[in-house]
Write a structure and sequence with these properties.
The complex is a heterodimer of chains A (266) and B (142). Chain A has 266 residues and is α/β, with parallel strands linked by helices. Chain A is built from 10 helices and 9 strands. Classes of the chains: A alpha/beta (266), B alpha/beta (142). The A-B interface holds A 46-47, 49-50, 53-54, 77-78, 81-82, 84-86, 88-92, 95, 98-99, 102-103, 105-106, 109-110, 113-114 and B 36-37, 39-40, 43-44, 67-68, 71-72, 74-76, 78-81, 85, 88-89, 92-93, 95-96, 99-100, 103-104.
C-alpha cells in the first residue's frame, strides 16, 4: 500500500538525513500560483497614517481586476513600545511574540476596514483554509503578517526580540502557497548598503543573491534576516522584491513583473 | 407583555434589589500608562504588593492599554475609522498588558481568562485560584 519511500519513513527515523533527502521528490505543487503576497510595512507605511496609506490602497484597488493579492501587514511603533516595556519587565520571547501579533493584527484590521467596501475580508490564521475561496470571489484578503507562533516563537541568537516577525510571516505564506510574487512595500527604494535614514551615503543595491548579501555582512538590512535564511531552503518562493510604497506606480510596476526596487534571489 | 420599555413609570417600577454574585472579591484595575508603561520601576513593586494581597483576598485584575492605545487611536483617527473600530483595536493593547502582568503574576496562581469567555469562567476560577486577570476593556468592539 505504501510507496517505497513511505515504507522507509514508517520504519525509519525522521532524523536520518539520507532518508530526509529522499523526501524532496516529487517537486511540491504550487497551491496558488497566480496570487501575489504583498506585505504593507507597519513602521514604514501604516504608521504614517492617511498620507501614505490612502494612495497605496487606491493603487492596490486599481490593480484588483488584474492581480489577486494576499495582503499582509507589519507591526511598527506600537510593537517597539511593547517589546521595550516587555523586555524591561523580563518577559520571555514567547510573550513578546504575542504582543507583536496583536499590533500586526490591529494594522490588518485597519487596512481591512478601509478595503471593506470592495468586499475584501480580514482572515485569521484559522481561516486560511478559506483563502482560495475569498481570492476567487473577491480577488484579495487581508491578514496579519506576524506568524502565529505566540508562545512557540524560537529565541533569537542575540537578545530577546522575536526573530520571526511580520516580514517572515508574510514570506512563509508566499512559500507555502507557491505564489508568483513576494512584494514588500516599505518606505525606501529598496536595499542599501546601510540604512539610508542613518547614512545618507549608503549605496542602493538593485539586485543581489542571498549568498552575496550575507557575504557583505551588513550591520542592518531592509528585510528580516530570517527571510533570507528561509529563502535558502525555499521550494517555491526564491525571489523577493522590496519597493518604495510612498512612490505612486511602484506597486503596479512590481505586480506587472517589472524590476522596480530591489530583487533578492535565493 | 406589550408594554413599552420607554414609559418612565414602567422603568421606575423595575427598581428591585440585585443579587451580589461575587461579594467577597475585589476588582483591581492596573493602569496602562500610569503603571505598566513605566516598566519594571513602576510595575515590580506593584506585583509584589499584589502577591501579598493574593494571600488574603480574591482579586479580579484588569489592565489598561496605555501609550499603545493612544497611538492606535491617533492612526485610526487619521485614517477616518469610526469609534466602533477604534474600540475594537484598543482591546488588543490592554490584552497585551494583561499578558505581561499575567506572566509576572503566574507564580502566584493568577489565571488569565480570554475576554470571549471571561463571564463564563470567572466564577469557577475565582473559587479555584487566588486571582484572575483579563484585559480591562468591555467587549463592545464594533
Amino acid at each position: 500500500m505504501l510507496t517505497e519511500l513511505g515504507a522507509a519513513l514508517v520504519a525509519g527515523s525522521l532524523t536520518d538525513e539520507e532518508l530526509l533527502a529522499r523526501t524532496d521528490v516529487p517537486a511540491t505543487v504550487r497551491i496558488l500560483p497566480e496570487a501575489n503576497v504583498i506585505k504593507i510595512g507597519g513602521q514604514s507605511l501604516i504608521d504614517r497614517g492617511r498620507s501614505a496609506v490612502f494612495p497605496l490602497l487606491d493603487e492596490l484597488v486599481a490593480n484588483l481586476p488584474d492581480h489577486k493579492m494576499i495582503i499582509g501587514t507589519g507591526a511598527g511603533t506600537r510593537a517597539r513600545h511593547a517589546y521595550s516595556v516587555g523586555i524591561d519587565l523580563g518577559m520571555p520571547t514567547g510573550v513578546l511574540s504575542v504582543l507583536g501579533t496583536f499590533v500586526s493584527m490591529q494594522n490588518a484590521r485597519m487596512i481591512h476596514y478601509l478595503l471593506a467596501r470592495h468586499g475584501i475580508p480580514f482572515i485569521e490564521p484559522a481561516q486560511f483554509p478559506q483563502l482560495p475561496l475569498y481570492l476567487s470571489e473577491r480577488r484579495a484578503v487581508v491578514f496579519f503578517g506576524m506568524p502565529p507562533y505566540t508562545f512557540w516563537q524560537p529565541n533569537p541568537k542575540i537578545g530577546r526580540i522575536p526573530p520571526h516577525r511580520t516580514d517572515t510571516g508574510a514570506y512563509l505564506v508566499s512559500e507555502v502557497f507557491g505564489t508568483r510574487s513576494m512584494i514588500y512595500v516599505k518606505d525606501e527604494d529598496g536595499l542599501y548598503t546601510a540604512d539610508p535614514k542613518k547614512e545618507p551615503g549608503a549605496t542602493f543595491i538593485p539586485s543581489i543573491t542571498v549568498e552575496e548579501l550575507e557575504a557583505l555582512c551588513l550591520d542592518d538590512v531592509v528585510v528580516e534576516r530570517s527571510v533570507l535564511d528561509m529563502m535558502k531552503n525555499a521550494k517555491s518562493s526564491r525571489s523577493i522584491q522590496i519597493i518604495n510604497g510612498l512612490v505612486p506606480g511602484n506597486l503596479t510596476r512590481a505586480l506587472n513583473g517589472e524590476h522596480v526596487g530591489t530583487i533578492i534571489s535565493g | 407583555m406589550r408594554e413599552t420599555l420607554l414609559d418612565r413609570a414602567v422603568m421606575a417600577a423595575t427598581e428591585a434589589p440585585t443579587v451580589a454574585m461575587l461579594p467577597h472579591c475585589h476588582v483591581v484595575k492596573v493602569g496602562g500608562r500610569s503603571i505598566l508603561d513605566g516598566g519594571r520601576r513602576s510595575t515590580y513593586p506593584l506585583v509584589e504588593a499584589i502577591s501579598r494581597a493574593l494571600a488574603r483576598h480574591k482579586l479580579i485584575l484588569g489592565t489598561g492599554g496605555g501609550a499603545r492605545t493612544r497611538h492606535v487611536f491617533s492612526i485610526g483617527l487619521d485614517l477616518g475609522l469610526p469609534s466602533g473600530v477604534l474600540a475594537q483595536l484598543a482591546i488588543a493593547d490592554a490584552l497585551g498588558n494583561a499578558h505581561m502582568l499575567g506572566t509576572l503574576l503566574a507564580p502566584y496562581g493568577v489565571v488569565a481568562i480570554p475576554p470571549e469567555i471571561f463571564g463564563h469562567l470567572l466564577p469557577l476560577f475565582i473559587q479555584a485560584a487566588p486571582g484572575v486577570i483579563f484585559n480591562g476593556d468591555p467587549p463592545f468592539g464594533l
